[in-house]
Amino acid sequence: MVMGVLAGMVLAEAFVRFFILPDFRSLQQDIVQRHPLFGHMNAPNLAMRQYTPLNYDTVVHTNAMGFRGREADREKELNGIWMGGDSNAFAGGVADEETYAFRLRAHGFWAANISVNGHSLAQQALVIRDTASKGYRPKAVAVTLSQFLGYKPQANYRHFLTDPLAEIERSGQVEHNTDAVTLLTRAFMALVGGVPKSWQDIRARLIGNSAIYGYLKIAVLRLPALRDWTKRVGLRADVATVFGASPDLLRPMTADNPAYRTLEEMADMAAAMQHYVRDRLDAPFGILLAPSYHQMNPQSFETMLRHKRIVGDDLSPDHARLAFVRALRARGVPVLDLLEPLKASGVRPLSFPDDGHMTPTAHRVAAPAIAAWLKDELGVEPQP
Predict the structure, then answer these.
(1) Distance between CA atoms of residues 104 and 116, nearest Å
(2) Which residues contact 122 (CB under 8 A, 6 or more apart)?
(3) Most CB contacts within 10 A, which of 189, 262, 358, 374?
(4) CA 106 → CA 67, 88, 102, 148, 347, distances in Å?
(5) What residues form DSSP beta bridges with 35?
(6) What DSSP string runs through 253-294?
(7) What DSSP designation does 153 have?
(8) Residue 182 lies in a domain
(9) Distance CA 33, CA 278 (A)
(10) pLDDT, tens digit (0-9, with 9 covering 90-100), for 345-355
């Protein structure tokens, strides 16, 4: 009986995987992979479909170096503006030609999208140095940081701009160490972590391994009534209730707030990167700030506070944003806060319904603002 049930499940999974949802493997393909220097990096030569109904259905391409875009454009892009950063700059779910890095072409700028999902300033410093070591030289470098997950302590990484890359790679400061004790510990933790502890754990396993679940999820998301019901009962996360960073980032940025020290460290790291890019690569450098979901959709902020039970006086999603802009400008680092042109445009939607990243619409609005900033603040002249 048990064997019959198992055999039936295997046959059903095979049938869905090969006949009903043949795109399953590409839908679940990993964008990033482990990298000995950067910690993780986009997989090279990707042509990966990303599909979430009512959010996006697009194909993400990477070139032979793992940078977003087509291999045929790589040389032109790397001899133009280097657009670094994290997930909002990489722009998963947004078609290649709809990202703001690509749209800069319409304003006279070829741009290489060297961003990587989840990268910090320090990791992007290594990407910039490694790309330069291959002989490429940018006309300018602009690194995007997403609020609030892009705000990470940086005090211990300034030497990433000075130590030899081979030494940083050998030290394993970004990649996990590979000594025997570390490997054994990691294997044990992977075994313990392999036991699902909640519905969310089970759901994560099913998403990555079951074509049947993937098909059912897609079918549910296509139907607005079922889609809303699964969100209400907690079967799916409501992006309006998500906040994955420290609540201190929502409090006033006084000197005794730990988040304030983090922002100061980040501003110091950005200033050090500016010196490196200016002195070693003879190019200007600046920071772009991508807004969070709660900044683009302020009506969701109170919902999130109630859900996360975050309490305090004068809570705001703008305290950290404004403090970081001030810290960068105090150090002479050019900064463009993308929230301002996005809000001023009046266009919607600025973020996807089920995740907090910028939509193609937001990228379309951001591109001319970035182009003007490159010209006026960084002094880069567009090409005809």
Answers:
(1) 19
(2) 154, 157, 160, 174, 269
(3) 358
(4) 20, 20, 8, 30, 20
(5) 39
(6) --TT-HHHHHHHHHHHHHHHHHHHHHHHH---EEEEEEPPHH
(7) -
(8) no
(9) 30
(10) 999 999 998 88
Domain assignment present for 79? yes
14, amino acid identity: A
* CA quadruple 229, 232, 235, 240: dihedral sign: positive
Residue 330 zone, left/alpha/beta (φ > 0; ψ -120 to 50; rest):
alpha
* Count of domains observed in the chain: 1
Return the amino acid letter for 89: A
Place of tokens 């980032």: 249
Residues 267, 374, 69, CA angle at the centre, nearest 5°? Answer: 95
Tokens for 4, please give them.
């019959």
CA distance readout (Å), 374 to 80, 101, 109: 12, 12, 9
Q: Which two tokens stand for residue 229?
A: 């019901």
Does some domain include residue 178? no
Range of the domain at 356: 23-172+216-376
Tell me if 18 is assigned to some domain.
no
We report the CATH number of the domain holding residue 64 as: 3.40.50.1110
Provide block-wise average pLDDT over 10 residues at a time, the chain (384 residues).
72 70 62 95 94 88 98 97 98 96 98 97 98 98 96 95 96 57 43 49 57 66 74 77 95 96 98 98 98 95 95 96 98 98 95 93 98 98 89
pTM of the model: 0.86
Q: Which amino acid type is present at position 315?
A: L
